[in-house]
Write a structure and sequence with these properties.
Elements: H1 3-14, H2 18-37, E1 42-44, E2 48-55, E3 58-61, E4 68-71, E5 74-81, H3 83-89
Antiparallel strand pairs: 1-2, 2-5, 3-4
């Protein structure tokens, strides 16, 4: 499912205009991203938890040349599904 398909689905299920549905979906995503940028966890009951994972700097290899390269430290979002979501999939 793409973002556009999600917007259409929300619009049809809640009987809202597509533009209103798009604003609602975009606002939801923006709020999740803003919370993660501040280092907060986002827990959506029954769905799962979004959190920020910190990766340390490390040495890697260029697979083409075999040359060692330094990979800088970074932050990444991670998602842990909740019990309700896991049960729905199994």
């Amino acid at each position: 499912m793409t973002k556009a398909e999600l917007i259409e689905s929300v619009a049809s299920k809640v009987d809202l205009p597509r533009a209103t549905s798009e604003r609602a979906v975009n606002t939801l995503f923006d709020d999740i991203v803003a919370a993660l940028k501040q280092g907060e966890k986002v827990n959506i009951s029954g769905f799962g938890t979004f959190a920020v994972s910190t990766r340390k700097a490390r040495t890697g290899r260029n697979p083409k040349t075999g040359e060692s390269i330094e990979i800088s430290a970074s932050r990444a979002a991670k998602f842990k599904p909740g019990k309700t979501l896991k049960d729905a999939l199994n």
